[in-house]
Specification:
RdgB/HAM1, hydrolase, single chain, Maf protein, Non-canonical purine NTP pyrophosphatase, alpha/beta, binds inosine 5'-triphosphate, globular
């Protein structure tokens, strides 16, 4: 059984739709969201912490909306911005400030099961702030840091539009791809093209071959 580590029911719905109901169990665990410019170090750190907590194979899902004209804002801060400004305010800001409304969604899945495998290069090393916070520390911290993690990234391009649709979650109503917003699609339709669907596809292929 795979523990899908998230507090977000929408993510779990899509993971179950893709991987199968019986294979995914939600682990509602709030790992430390380290400050970083990319999703990779956040997801890797989360997977290590979640594995130490659960003692079973875990998959962490970190995602964000990156608006081209805002240099990728809100990116890794997407959850904070959704909670504070709200999705519709982001859309109004884009409409007011930008002629060019292109954006992309990214999703990074991080897998950890305490075992050895062809682990991804450690993204924590790439980010000075995260590395500084993660070096030193006690033995527990050093053991957590040493756990191998495998990363799978997915991305989809689209544009920011006025909200449409009742499905999905988060920024889905304002993200349009090929004429439809993600909130106008079923979970299966969204998975077929989305950042999460692509990352899940890469993960499933690797996991089956293990
Ligand atoms: O950290 P967890 O517990 O998984 O839950 P979260 O919702 O805080 O997840 P993130 O840190 O990955 O935050 C990503 C933000 O982007 C939003 N988001 C993530 N995936 C999305 C998707 O597929 N469609 C629309 N919005 C999405 C989500 O609602 C958050 O506001």
């Amino acid at each position: 059984m795979l523990r899908y580590v998230t507090t977000n029911e929408g993510k779990v719905r899509e993971a179950r739709e893709y991987l199968g109901d019986g294979d995914v169990e939600q682990l509602d665990f709030d790992y430390t969201e380290v400050q970083a410019d990319d999703l990779e170090p956040i997801a890797a750190r989360g997977a290590r912490e979640a594995y130490r907590h659960a003692g079973e194979p875990v998959l962490v899902d970190d995602a964000g909306l990156f608006v081209d004209g805002f240099d990728g804002f809100p990116g890794p801060y997407s959850a904070f911005v959704e909670d504070t400004l709200g999705v519709e305010a982001v859309q109004r800001l884009v409409a007011r400030e930008l002629d060019e409304r292109r954006a992309r969604f990214r999703c990074v899945l991080a897998y950890c099961d305490g075992g050895e495998f062809d682990a991804s290069p450690d993204p924590v090393d790439r980010d000075d702030r995260v590395a500084a916070a993660a070096t030193g520390g006690n033995r527990d911290e050093q053991e957590t840091r040493a756990l191998p993690v495998k990363l799978f990234a997915g991305e989809v391009r689209g544009r920011i539009v006025e909200p449409r649709g009742d499905g999905g979650f988060g920024y889905d109503p304002i993200f349009e791809h090929d004429g439809a917003t993600f909130a106008e699609m079923s979970a299966a339709e969204k998975n077929a093209i989305s950042h999460r669907g692509r990352a899940l596809g890469k993960f499933a292929e690797w996991f089956q071959e293990r």
